[in-house]
Amino acid sequence: MRHLLSIEDLDRAAIERILDRAKSFTEVSEREVKKVPALRGRRVLNLFYEASTRTRSSFELAAKTLSAEVVNFVSSGSSVEKGESLKDTVQTLSAYRPDLIVVRTPHVGAAELVARWSPAAVVNAGDGKHEHPTQALLDVYTLRERLGSLDGASIWIVGDVLHSRVARSNIQAFTMLGAHVTVCGPPTLIPRGMEALGCDVAYALDRLPEADVVYALRMQKERMTESFVPSLREYAARYQIHGRRLGARQVLMHPGPVNRGVELAAEVIESPQAVIGQQVAAGVVVRMAVLYELLAGRAAPDRAPSLPTPQPA
Amino acid sequence: MNPAVPTTGGAEPLVHRAQPPADLLVRGAHALDPRTGVDAPLDVLVRDGEIAELGAPGTLEAPDGAEVLDGEGRHLFPGFVDPHVHLRVPGQEHKEDLDSGTRAAAAGGFVAVVAMPNTDPAVDDATVLGSLREAARREARIPVGFMASVTRGLAGEALTEMAELRDAGALGFTDDGKPVHRAAILRRALQYQRLCGGVLALHEEDPSLSGAGVMHEGEVSARLGLAGIPSISESTMIARDAAIAGYEGGRIHVQHLSALESVEAVAVAKANGVAITAEASPHHLTLTHEAIRERLDTRLKMNPPLRAERDRQALVAGLRDGTIDCIATDHAPHAREEKEVPFEEAPMGTTGLETAFAAVLTDLVVPGVLPLALVVEKLSAGAAVVGLPLPAIAVGRPADLCLVDLDAAWEVGEAGYESRAENCCFAGRTLRGRVLATVAAGAVVYRERAFALSAA
User: Which residue in the set B222, B228, B298 is minimally distant from A313, CB to CB?
Assistant: First the structure.
């Protein structure tokens, strides 16, 4: 595996290999000196065109724990603000010879472009509404810890599926590991053709009790002004996961950050069913495993970055 | 054509940098002109730019000084006419110019093209049109006709001076790139058409349904997380505009059909007697949104978008049964840096002039989906849509011809493009069918390199 751009780059065996390695890394976080030399001398570049708290910090922690050098590039205050194109930025930063680039952008397919334009290994940390594969891996990791196995599990993903890269990656990862996924939300927020990803579609929560796992998505306030839902009040009335809707044996997940009182009621966030904190913790070890998978045992890229390439996009 | 539509008021409809009329003998090519019924190997003699004689192979002699084109094993067609291209002049010469755009057209076998007015400034008054036609007289390698915009600045608010634009040579009117969103504006334009003639060519799209869409709404957009453009964005506007045209007795042409529902809407309008014609592009006839799933390539981003297989099949069926009148490329060149960006950021459009025939031949004729004669006819039928004479292989007609090797395979883009732009949706594909030479308005305007060398 050269890049992690999409869950489609993986198969079940690859996911399980990464998760097993992530598990073996948990011990490192418990040491007094939280560092192993696995990626000493390797350079990791965090290239973030979108705001991110947990994803960027967990990639940084993961890389540093493995002793890699980390450079953070954020678009504000950079030459991007002066109009530099993604291609020029990537080729310029590639001149620093990073071994791996972690990239988040608001645009579908941008991570794939970075992989085409740079000799470095590339990890997609979110490309628009397309995919967020490391989120899916950490969610699968969290569920394996809780349930032992995803085989035969029923997972409901509830909320704004239309705008969610987490939903797209998670449907594929959960399905690959043997779970059955139902997406549920207002019909205006479920894209036409969603069944093609191998999930069921529901518009009401009445069958939610059959779920083993309830995965709530973030509901962004601007969706209301765009007329996707008439009001957050009505949305919350129909789709909020609260104490009466969440069963005692169900597992509750959320990719964060949570809109309290919108997609989740306060009482379920702090309930024993919730594994939201575990998801965040899993983020570091899973990303360590991804970096290790892509870099360990692989030679640093030896070819110089091509400037400019003759190939059209 | 609708006889109620007058021709341009005095101004010649097509302009180009005319070359001296040629004396030419095309020897032994299989001549195929579905409209005149010519379908046999022939010698075709062009004298002084006109088709002078047709004879059995080997029977005609080349006059002194005449160029001889070896047609043995090749096909000779009436030259193609494209009623829908973007030559980007004035204002966007970094994408294409009159020389490069018409060179691309000639290389594709086209003998006339019609340029869209969504330039900068838009072709929305007679002075812009006049200077553009002057430039074409200096630079265009094949005859070019120009459409003017329906509304000033393509803003959709106020009609252009349609009568004056017609007098200055506008073939018709279109806000292509955008719909005429306000029904009342379209209605006024159709009323005014009674005075000045000129077809109204319509880009059919409801912006409120298309929203921020960047590709066809369906399984692929759902999977990729890209905002979709639903089929109904196009078909509902066609139904609306056909109703308005029917009410006013006006003449409309629907550009670049992409959806099954749109083909149905055009068929219904035709059955109801509306004066409506329609075009489809080679890319919509041969590709689907699955191509974007295979590779998120900005060259596959165009408006209307590549749709589903059911839509593609409906377009092919519409071409076969006459619901769709012609093939038009919507040749839309963009600069490399404009397309070398994430998919959502890229401008809409693919080039198409150099690949139109080969794409349709390879994907529709070779597999036996459509007969060659039908494709040849539809590739020039666009002339009638805009009121131009149809090219014909007939004695006494101007020589508007293309000589084609149906068996030659070539990789698109491997040897570059004649167009200034390289955003071709067929790039990298190996296609069958190579245009060897094009004769437009009585002069040889294109010779394929290897063919020219072999003749020398």
Answer: B298
